[in-house]
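Aim 2 progress update. The chain analyzed this quarter is reproduced below.
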Amino acid sequence: MTVPDGQRPLRAAVLLGLALLGVAACSPRDDLAENQSQPVSDSARAAFASSARVDLTGGGATFPYPLYARWFNEYAPLAQVRINYRAEGSGEGIRHIINRTADFGATDVPMTDAQLSRVGAQVLHIPTAVGAVAITYNLPGAGRPLRLSADVLTDIFLGRITRWSDARLAALNPDRTLPDDSVIVVVRDDDSGTSYIFSDYLATVSADWARHPGRGSTVDWPVGRGAHGNEGVAGLVKQTVGAIGYVEAVFARQNRLPLAHLRNRAGRFISPMPYEIAAAADQVLAREAGRMTRPNDYRLSLVDAPGQASYPIASFTWLVFSPAVLGEPRTRQLVDFLHWALRDGSAITSSLGYVTLPTSVAEDVLQRLDQLPAAAARAHPH
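Predicted structure tokens:
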């Protein structure tokens, strides 16, 4: 889930420094899908016509940046609204909300209760897509995809399993040839939503990991060589025989990295593909549906989800904002955009390799969004 990272091997400086400046901006992944306008529903057109133009600014997570850039580009000429977004990382997205320096933030890491209390107004977490963390490795001649269980993966990153010939790895991979090489762990050394999602999973499945180092966007890794961004981790794994690391699943698939199959709670080995990632969200939402009555109920962890098909390291990515801080006009513009994005923009989501929200989740989100402009107007009476 927060957490926040790039989706293809772009230079980190380009990814972090590029801002979307209205209609003139270009997505860094326009080469991955045809840049064609998506069909717009009648309800979306009516929403556009009902609202005065208001420019919006946001910043935060890098993981959804290619998706948001395409969305904002497609939406701008339809709604005559510019949405400017800077990919800075989930931590910055949260700081924007706390410091009120942008209209919305974007994060792969849910805000804590302590952070929410600093805003002084209700903050909403709106899921926009489902992401996942993949485990990649460098084992020449290993044959079929590596299989890993939660306990073995945890012990690799705790430094307890140090050689690929370890008996526990061999037992999980009886039909693979694993060398007697050292296990070289590669980790993120920057503030990262990917690290949050991965450490959230390890802390969920391992009491030892939960005690230390625990979950966070920065982690005191027990072992490992540090690298910056998805690109850094992937590059170090590729050049180091015996290496293992974690990256965003979309990035991994598009760069054709070898991906481990992880044993889920149902005992099945699952790869990080769109159906399996979406299945995790479906299962968690079905489990939590009866308890979701508050505005921040979508601060849900999707890791270690139940279900036969669920991939175990999945997460939402969120837009976060406060209707009371924004006021009615800007809240309405953001709500109108989200209506378009989650319905008409879903084709863009899939075309770029992201996982769309399950239909039940998207419809529930949109119903909640429809109540926000009126609430914002009450908070800012004329």
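The chain has two domains: 12-132+311-379, 134-271. The first helix runs from residue 12 to 17. These observations will guide the mutagenesis experiments scheduled for the next reporting period.
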